[in-house]
Amino acid sequence: MKSIKKINYFKNLVSLVSCFFVAIFILLNFASQAQDRRRDLNYYSILSKKVDNNIHLENFGHKKGIVETCYWDEQWRKSNILLVMDSILIRNVETRIDVRCNGLEVKYKGEIKAIPCYRVNFVQFIDNDDVFITENILKSSQKGFYKVMLDDKNMLLCGSEIEIVKANYNIALGVGNKHDMMVRKEKFFIYSQNGILIRMELSKGKMRKQFRDKPLLYDYLRENKTNPRDKVQLVKFIKFINKNNVDLILQ
Question: Quick one: CA torsion of 201, 203, 70, 74, rounded to 10 degrees?
Fold first, then answer.
């Protein structure tokens, strides 16, 4: 009888040790993946091949005529583009981001080429060094371009979405819009150091509630009356998170 108990004891012990090592392996693998993503973000061009011509743009179709478009910035601006395919870097081309189509428009040989966001890793605008990364860098299912507002352990990103504002023309008063309008709305995200993309609420009350299980952050938001639509205040908030090494895995 004692012999059977000893055998069962050793079996349970071996099972516990095996589970422990499996758990450690999973955690290390997750941490490794998060570190890989952070390494990708630290300096993008290190990963790219230096290409002095833009022949790779020949592979993309030209933009078809679309009446309704909504751009991050209407102006064409010189930029460098890192493509997903073979990490090819295309330099010094005029581009603009089409938020509605989740794509990048590029001027090339008298045409406008349309590159979908899933074919792009990042875009760096030359005039002000603004960097926009895509879901490919973030390993996220939320497609689109994200402007890097703060590049640190926990990052602040700004995304965009299109909202349709219905026509509200008043015939009697002769005021309002006669047609539906597209309006670009900004949304903000934290890309945590463990590789999680967290969309931030856009009202003070909801944002505080979002961090209710993090007393340090909840108190900061309440005491500073942080406006979740104010980019300067959001940058300060993320810097506070990084300074205090707060774990951002939300409940």
Answer: -110
* Contact in structure between 159 and 145 (CB atoms under 8 Å): yes
| 87-119 confidence digits (pLDDT tens) | 889 999 999 999 988 999 999 888 999 999 999
Q: Which residue has the tokens 């099972």?
A: 15
In the structure encoding, which two tokens stand for residue 29, read together?
Answer: 């693998």
How far apart, in whole angstroms, are the C-alpha atoms of residue 131 and residue 40? 13
| HEC-encoded secondary structure of 80-112 | EEEECHHHEEEEEEEEEEECCCCEEEEEECCEE
Strand partners, 165: 181
**C-alpha to C-alpha distance for 235 and 221, rounded to whole angstroms:** 13
Q: How confident is the model at residue 2 (pLDDT cuts 50, 70, 90)?
A: very low
- Asked if 214 and 208 touch (Cβ cutoff 8 Å), the reply is no
Nearest alpha-carbon partner for 72 in 182, 200, 166: 182
pTM of the model: 0.73
User: What single DSSP character describes residue 166?
Assistant: P
For 167-216, the pLDDT digits (tens) are 676 676 666 676 667 778 899 999 998 888 999 999 999 999 999 999 99
**DSSP three-state, residue 227:** coil
